[in-house]
## 1
Amino acid sequence: MSNNAYDKQVQEFMARIKAKNPGEDEFHQAVHEVAESLIPYIEENPQYKEAKILERIAEPERVILFRIPWVDDKGEVQVNKGYRIEMNSAIGPYKGGLRFHPTVNLGILKFLAFEQVFKNSLTTLPMGGGKGGSDFDPKGKSDNEVMRFCQSFMTELFRHIGPNTDVPAGDIGVGGREIGFLFGQYKRLRNEFTGVLTGKGREWGGSLIRPEATGYGATYFAEEMLKTRGESIKGKTVAISGSGNVAQFATEKVTEMGGKVVTLSDSSGFIYDKDGIDEEKLAYVMHLKNVKRGRIREYADKYGVEYHEGKRPWGIKCDVAMPNATQNEINEEDAKTLIKNGCYVVSEGANMPSTPEAVEVYLESKILYGPGKAANAGGVAVSGLEMSQNSLRFSWTREEVDEKLQRIMKDIHAQCEKFGKEEDFINYVKGANVGGFVKVADAMLAQGIV
Ligand code: NDP
């Protein structure tokens, strides 16, 4: 079949997806990218076509929408929306994070849940895909307000989740503090201590390296990509966006491996530290963001470096870019600027941080581009290891978990290479999409029309 015939099939498939899921732009974007890789593969493997696997995989098994009423510190009643998308359970219980951010809506969570299905499959661990969250904004809220909100959220969610059914974790706006409040309420409602959430504290069922896993994993993935050219992260200049969980631990690992991180950002702007963000400066960022809950601008005041209000860091000269903040944070123009300035590695800690046009620029330039569903799978992989440890009532050492994480990132890279190898470069987009698809699709075939 010709490329034009594939394009036509993708367009027809996407027209049906858009008609069925109106207004869900991010979901359309995520499905489109996957359909472009999969439709040619499915044509060559007609068993998937006959069983309508692609149509089924793009439809959530279940979507739960609920009201979250809570009372703020002034005694005023507040109401938020709560969601859980249970996307696919062919290879294991639903698994994926919770996002608390004012922009959260159904389309964003469906895109994240859809991506999660492929990502979880790539980890080689038995986890289905899910995602959830709320339009609640934790910024500026007191600890007590966050706790009351989390308790109300879990008062509905608890009836839909369980260690063998659906195991949520953190994402934007949901870190250790929120997971603690959510777990406490689940335990109280169910009267059982069980591994229903991952990202738990060390003393109450959490895994070592879980907080670090996404940022570390995205760095290991960059290293694997560099290895294909006989290179390493050592001595490379790295531009990172975000300053939350993923950005912090990517900074830590890049620095440890001998690279130099020169930027960090938040939704207000970015800092540019030419000398590199070393261990001591990173400790300052961690305190600023995780304890004081301040803005990245304060870093510039403290260390006397440049701060660019309202801007993203993609104009800064670097070898490696790690977008670690949010979706669609690199557009076509940014991608061109990065490449013009010498960047030739993009490892995505965030989910879908590059627009389709930016991805096109990477693929045309044949740079080392690791899409989020492969590069940031380290987080959910260690969540999977946390589930195993909870089931075993046992915990592995830091070294053991880190060693497993490194092996998983290598395996993910190998799958991308196997399914994405083209004449003169590795197409990691195709590799991750096809590699993630096969296991889920075969399980769906085996389980019948369900
Ligand atoms: P955090 O909430 O810890 O940090 C998010 C960071 O991104 C903050 O610096 C935040 O700035 C910034 N940010 C958020 N929204 C925007 C926006 N609209 N524009 C610009 N900056 C923004 O989240 P995580 O670090 O956990 O998540 C970051 C990304 O990584 C997300 O895409 C998430 O889905 C993905 N991811 C996370 C995993 C995990 O294990 N945590 C696993 C896999 C992927 P501000 O404080 O100003 O909002």
## 2
Amino acid sequence: MSIATIFRYLKPEVSPREDPEVFVKSVRSFIRDHVRSEDKVEIMVSGGVDSAVTATLFHLEIGDRLYVSHIDTGFMRLIRGREESEMIAEKFSDFKNFNLINARNLFYEKVMAIPDAEQKRRGFRTAYEIITDQQMVESNCNVMTQGTILPDIIETDGGIKSQHNVHLRFSKVKKVLEPLAGLCKDEVRRVAEFLWSRYKMKVLENVSRRQPFPGPGLSVRTVSTITPEKLKIEKMANDTVEQMIDEYTEERFGTNLYIDEKTGEQMPFQSFAATFDDEFIKRTDEIASLLKERTRKGIRYKILNTKVTGVRDGKRVYSHPLCIESDAKLGYDILDRLGIEIPAETSLSRVLYKVGSKVGPLGYVVAIRSVNSIDAINATVNEIPIKTIGRIADEIVKRYGVKEVYWDISPKPPATIEYE
Ligand code: XMP
């Protein structure tokens, strides 16, 4: 097996923000320059906007010489109670060469029962490499394309993110094409909207309004060791959070994804749940006095016994999340400050605020996260009223019996959007 050479369309002359049609013409010419008439091209689609747009652009240019596959890793979401992989297969029904690969057993074997975040990602990556390579041998493809976008490249090269699909090794593929490599998320959405309005392909319907979802899926949100029970809780809690925050956003903005036209900021950029084991470590007095000094309120706190990702000095770091609880209701004036000041003055990069009011029988803690962002490089907390978050927490405790629910009040940096 060898590593393929990556060709990236990094510097489009015209951004899709100015003119999506001109961008589409230029990217099609990039594809023509790199794909010969005898080449067959494979794309692994995730269900997100980046890979859907990439698949459509190739389909327009090379038709049935494009082979599309989606891997059901077992870590995909439930969306309103339905398996996302099934929905993706329906969306790609216009593509002649579409293949849904059930690889749950291999992914579970490589990822379950591993506590370390980086090792889990490596396990996921190994399974992804094996399945992708097998698929390309089967479909006899010699070129691969991916929907990688600019923030993915910046963060992977900068050591902030370790992507599951970079520098993969293949038996047959010598060339990887990344036609969206020069774009940010809002630009990809514009291309999606333009292509949808022009070609009406099912795969693009509403895709521009979908939130990003990490390649390793819920494996990075089922924090630390994954068990079947913990994964099941995570799937259901994540579905509840997505649905209830969608409903709140619809009510507030008349759409489930509000985009500020001037800045490109998306509200929310992402909303989800993460599930932790209910294990805590010893408190430190340094934090007690800091909380007292900053809030002038009686704040109880504990520290989760697992490390999660953050960003410090442009690098990925791991630290324990601080969980705080108060009898007095805290507003965003205080929560925002704590989310910034605690990481600045301690070694902890996250602050979680307790919003779950009941105590369930299962030994899990769920964190609700919802952030606004332009490009995922920076993100701010989506300031949903705490009362609404409390209602979501109550649903999670009531339906799934977890012990406690927290609201993540940490911006990126110093936190990351995901936890692993
Ligand atoms: P972080 O957690 O690093 O995430 O702030 C930034 C954005 O990237 C998504 N993400 C990933 N996407 N493969 C992906 O395709 C990955 O391994 C991965 N990890 C994080 C994350 O959901 C957010 O939008």
